[in-house]
Amino acid sequence: MLSIDEYRLDNGLGVVLNEDHSAPLVAINLWYHVGSKNERPGRTGFAHLFEHMLFSGSQHVENNEHFRYVQSVGGVLNGTTFFDRTNYFETLPSNYLALGLWLESDRMGFFLPALTQEKLDIQREVVKEERRQRYDNVPYGTAFERLLHLAFDPDYSYHWPTIGSMDDLGAASLDDIRQFFSTWYRPNNCVLTIVGDFAPAEAKELVAKYFSDIAPGDKFPHFDLQRKPLGGERREQFASPVQLPRIYRLYHLPKMGEPGWVHADLLSTVLASDKASRFEKALVLEQQIATDVAAYVLPTESTGMLLMQATAKEGISIDQLERAIDDQIARVAKDGVTEDELNRARTRAEVDFAHQLENYDARGDLIGMLATYFGDARMVDRWLEPYQRATSSDLAEAARQYLVPENRVTSLFVPEAA
Amino acid sequence: MSDFRATAPQPGPPRPYQFPHVTRKTLPNGLHIVVAENHAAPLVAARAIIRSGADHDTPEQAGLASLTSELLDEGAGSRDAVRMAEDTGRLGASIGSGADWDASYVSVDVLARNANAALEIFADVIRRPMLPAASLERLRSERLNELIQQRDEASAIAGKRFSNLLYAGGTYGNSVVGNPESVVNIKLDDVRRYYQSQYVANNTTVVVTGDIDADTIVALIERLFTDWPKKADPKPPTIKPAKFEKSSIYLIDRPTAVQSEIRVGHLGVPRATEDYFPLTVMNALLGGVFNSRINLNLREKHGYTYGARSAFAMRRQAGPFVVSAPVRNEVTLEAVSEVLSELRRIRTGDVDAQELGDTKAYLAGVFPATVQTASDIAGRLLDMDLYGLPHDYFDKYRETITAVSKDDVERVAKKYIDPDRMIIVIVGNVKQIQEPIGTLGYPVQHLDIDGNALPVA
User: Using CA atoms, how far apart are residues A182 and A217, in angstroms rounded to an integer?
Assistant: First the structure.
């Protein structure tokens, strides 16, 4: 059991302390419960662009100084944005806990006075370059974006990826940034997790000192996302500058943490993890029609997804590859999985989880996620329980219920005609 | 506004950091054993490093070291590939293998309660691989497919062309994974011969870290490896870099590109350089970390890129020094010009005290954050062994970094960076970039993605 102290300040800030003196470090991780899910069409990419802006200084911290303060004491830092949340984190030598809290509280409470058009213009260009580098200038780079467009209707805000579109990035104004900050970046929409080498009484005092005078926000806009059934498989074939055909699929699942999501997580390990897994053994080792295969679930809050991909070897048609994949899925749905496969998948979940707890940064991230999505940081001690409870028939049922054509979208990437 | 917000709070007293205690033993057959306990998590990391990598490949058989390493877990001891995956999966273990320029590796990460059983399999993979012919054919075909895919990856093309030009196609001048011509040249006999001559006790170090008892693990590794024969020490061929009398530009066309992948650099230094610490500080300041000059200039000042960096790849022999940046097509010339101007400026001694102090404080202070896991610790111990670093290296790291002076930075910048002899490789939309880039006044050569010279368009 991890030592977890979870509480709330009067202004609504969630605080989770996990004391651990194995290393003279503290990991600070803030999860703001806002992500690309909270964007509207025409303003996509905003939550992520905003994440960049939060590194460009606040009232008492000059532009570029946030990085300098942290790095010049031997700290590491970053931020990430996803559908449902944005997080900011730094790992510091433990005697610099106050510095980290000062920096984070300054941008939570005093960001707007330092905002300028020039900073926005620079970060907009940086984010456009990020989109070019990660999506537009690499083979298959837009695959996830294409799957989301197929899998979610335009009024469901998982319809677009976190990076957003070039046009929308270009349209973001300073007023949009102000509005977004005032709406979402409030203490009552945030969980602050501190992991590592601190004295609990001192840490609580510092948290109160730096965060308790930041005013809470109004009621947050309600996001009631209702996903409509697909009404049959949605498919597309996309000719692009790639050398080998690749199949991408997205299957809808219950949201993260639901039994169906856990079963699908285990099932994805049975299908694609090591050389003994179904897809890899059949498609890569035996039939030798694929160079690589993958299947995994995403940690999403509003609804769940299982992603699948496989690359056809040169000379192998995309149809042959797809038939082979469907054949493997049909077998699992019909005959289920063996007890041995289930046990290996459970053991892998246990190892992966142990690795996530192993360093302070990843542990803080995990705890912040549980506190944000489930309102309970102590779930970290129970996270593996549904994995242990799962039976081989649960996995077969997950295959029959979720891995069916009417529950999936498929995007086929094929080489452009030479 | 309360006063406490106006300035950064002062730190508390620093708490001591201690790198884990290390136990070392060399067996009579020459095998090094290095073990460190770290009980923070119920996990164990084991690594074997064979001190021969792609630097031993001939250009005709580039990719041999890496294909050999990948064949190791395709069956070993009494287990075929699938059986091995099943058995390791039951133990909560994952086995991996691979090669880079200086070494070949086998790794296992496992739940501590199953460490002994996993280490038995690990020893089989290193000592008793089956090297099956059918697996070589499959891995070769996967490799050829991987190489085909790289033909659409601008960063892979830029890296390959840069290395190939710098090392004139010799050692370090091909890719670790080889090329389509070399990969088809590799026969099973070549793999067997490579394995027999390089995977020998006196060329190998085994590192085990994590939630273990050091004495017990040393005894186990000794039992698993003590009867492994010793053989002649393998020696890699010497690198033969090309000489560049002046800076030259090489353009590789990718008509659909929305970014230019830029590489600017020349020959660097070997890991054993006496200037390792001054160079590390100088490079961190120049382009090695987020807050470095090149990244702040190209990203935060101009918004040309999502990220730009410089690096000295320090290998057993002199690896490249290279600045890399993907930038949008329209600013290719501006980005290259800014990089060159930063390379000139770092040589002038224009370094202020705060900038230098911040950089050294980062390098000296960040170490504990980078060695939190069993795997991190194993990685550091492998490096120490591979490059023959003294045993007190990490204990003295902080003070050695702190001792680097402004004069040292200027001296190594002048000695190891030559802005007038740069290889400048750009993979991008040539139609759009060739005219502006021509204004730099350097000779421009057009290449296809395989490096063949093309007539000027």
Answer: 7
Could you tell me the end-to-end alpha-carbon distance of chain A, in angstroms, rounded to an integer? 59
**Predicted model pTM:** 0.95
CB B169 within 8 A of CB B450: no
C-alpha pair distances (Å), A347 with each of A306, A388, B86, B89, B311: 20, 9, 12, 7, 39
> Cβ A71–B151 below 8 Å, yes or no?
no
Kind and range of the H or E run holding B70: helix B64-71
- Taking CB atoms and an 8 Å limit, are A133 and B5 in contact across chains? no
Determine the Cα–Cα distance for residues B205 and A280; give it in Å rounded to an integer: 31
| A372 to chain B, closest Cα gap in Å | 25
What count of other Cβ atoms lies within 10 Å of the Cβ of residue A382? 10
Answer whether B94 sits within 8 Å of A136, measured CB to CB: no
- Structure-derived torsion over alpha carbons of residues A273, B141, B156, B425, reported in degrees to the nearest 10: 170
A73 contacts B11? CB cut-off 8 A: yes
What is the predicted ipTM? 0.94
Distance from CA of A69 to the nearest CA of B (A): 8
Residue B454: pLDDT band by 50, 70, 90 thresholds? Answer: very high
* Residue of chain B whose alpha carbon sits nearest to that of A214: B1
What string of DSSP letters covers A332-360?
HHHH---HHHHHHHHHHHHHHHHHHHHSH
The answer, for A317 touching chain B at a CB cutoff of 8 Å, is no
Tokens found for residue B51:
């001190």
Mutate to test the interface with A, among B300, B301, B363 (most CBs of A within 10 A): B300
- Per the document, the length of chain B is 457
Cα B360 to Cα B322: distance, rounded to the nearest angstrom: 21
Rounded CA-CA distance A24/B12 in Å is: 12
Residue of chain A minimizing CA distance to B284: A71
Q: How far apart (Å, rounded) are the C-alpha atoms in residues B112 and B108?
A: 11
Of the candidates B9, B145, B327, which has its C-beta nearest A99's C-beta?
Answer: B9
Selecting from A73, A98, A340 the residue whose C-beta is nearest the C-beta of B361 gives: A73
Tokens 């989109």 correspond to A131
- Measured between beta carbons, which residues in chain A are less than 8 angstroms from residue B362? 71-74
Tell whether the torsion through CA atoms of A254, A257, A259 and A260 is positive or negative.
positive
Identify the closest residue of chain B to A63 by CA–CA distance: B300
For the beta sheet containing B248-253, the strands, ordered from the edge strand earlier in sequence to the opposite edge, are: B309-312, B320-328, B259-267, B423-428, B248-253, B444-447, B453-454
Are the CB atoms for B239 and B172 separated by under 8 Å? yes
Nearest chain A residue to B211, by CA: A358
- pLDDT for A187-230, tens place per residue? 999 999 999 999 999 999 999 999 999 999 887 877 778 898 99
DSSP structural state of residue A156:
S
B231/chain A closest Cα distance in angstroms: 33
Geometric angle at alpha carbon B348, from B308 and A62, rounded to 5°: 50
Buried b (16+ CB within 10 A) or exposed e, B346-370: bbeeebeeebbebbbbbbbbbbbbe
| CB atoms closer than 10 angstroms to residue B324 | 23
Q: What is the pLDDT of residue A417?
A: 78
Q: Are A105 and A61 spatial neighbours (Cβ–Cβ below 8 Å)? A: no
CA gap A341, A337 in Å, rounded = 6
Task: Grade residue B457 by pLDDT with cuts at 50, 70 and 90.
Answer: low
- Dihedral, B430, B431, B432, B435 alpha carbons, nearest 10: 90
Which of A73, A105, A276 lies nearest to residue B86, judging by beta carbons?
A276
- In this structure, the number of other CB atoms found within 10 A of the CB of residue A227 comes to 13
CA distance A111 to chain B (A): 13
Under 8 Å between Cβ of B300 and B292: no
